[in-house]
Write a structure and sequence with these properties.
Length: about 300
């Protein structure tokens, strides 16, 4: 029941100010956010790769209001790519982007987001890596999928994200389960109405398995975004039934959550990628992590009390 309340709070400026000022916030935020600058996150990338893991990097930020902010987001990713190139980390580090951060919600936003993301995708390809387009709330998805399709004409390795809790996603999965298509499947972390999305955990889990089966039986490259031990086991079984080799799909988990499991899966020969977020505009991302799991919220509240 707390999840929807927290998700609503993620768009509240008043709650943003309150949470940012809370004594325990910095301690908890550092659990999920790898740093505020690219210089702070690069050592973490190197440490992660040294453990046999891979990463996907997200410069946090969304709900921008000006074109200048959209251009700044593009430039932040270009700076990240420059650092990855110098250190030779391109093969192990891809990038995740939210098109809202690239101007998607502004006037003329679809064209603006496409023009901003294209040079990032091009630069990523030049250092041997790629970009995955994150899914946001359901009203943005048609635009996201259209941009994904356009980018794949020149950069077919460009990935996208689909969300199990949306009714539409099984159809999206069938369309995307084609050769060379990289698709990350997640449960979904936005507050969506009952008219477009499943509301109960049981329904979402069942949908996740149905969609995962579609992806595993297809010809694309599934990326399993989940920390759920049951879904990890289901993934391994469905991959076995589909005759997939260990390098024909991958697991993805968030930085700071179940880190021992990251290492365990990699040790078993699985491709394991750590979703690593950084940047100063961390509030929306942080609140969704709290909403996803009650233990995260309890950890935050306990830290506030301890530090207060």
């Amino acid at each position: 029941m707390l999840g929807p309340v927290i998700l609503a709070a993620s768009r509240s400026d008043k709650m943003r100010r309150f949470v940012s000022a809370a004594p325990g916030t910095k301690q908890v935020v550092s659990r999920f956010i790898a740093g505020e600058t690219v210089e702070q996150v690069i050592p973490i990338v190197r440490e992660t790769v040294a453990k046999g893991l891979e990463v996907t990097l997200d410069v946090v930020g969304e709900d921008i209001t000006t074109r200048e902010q959209a251009y700044a987001a593009r430039d932040a990713y270009m700076e990240l790519i420059e650092h990855l190139e110098v250190l030779g980390l391109g093969a192990k580090a891809e990038m995740s982007v939210k098109l809202s951060m690239f101007g998607q919600s502004l006037e003329g936003g679809h064209e603006l987001a496409l023009s901003n993301i294209r040079p990032v995708v091009e630069a990523a390809a030049s250092i041997g890596t790629t970009v995955t387009l994150d899914a946001e709330d359901h009203t943005t998805l048609d635009s996201m999928f259209a941009i994904h399709e356009e980018l794949r004409k020149d950069y077919p390795q460009t990935g996208c994200v689909i969300q199990a809790y949306l009714f539409r996603t099984e159809d999206d999965a069938r369309r995307l389960a084609e050769a060379g298509c990289r698709v990350r499947l997640v449960k979904g972390a936005y507050k969506e109405p009952a008219t477009v999305a499943y509301q109960s955990k049981a329904e979402i889990d069942k949908a996740y398995v149905r969609i995962l089966k579609i992806l595993m039986e297809g010809e694309g490259y599934p990326m399993i975004g989940s920390h759920d031990p049951r879904l990890i086991a289901v993934t391994q079984e469905l991959a076995r039934r589909a005759g997939r080799k260990l390098d024909e799909y991958e697991f993805q988990m968030l930085y700071g959550i179940r880190s021992d499991e990251h290492v365990r899966l990699a040790a078993e020969g699985h491709r394991m990628r750590v979703y690593t977020a950084y940047g100063t505009d961390w509030y929306g991302y942080f609140m969704r992590r709290l909403a996803e799991k009650p233990a995260n919220l309890l950890f935050f509240v306990r830290s506030m009390i301890t530090k207060g």
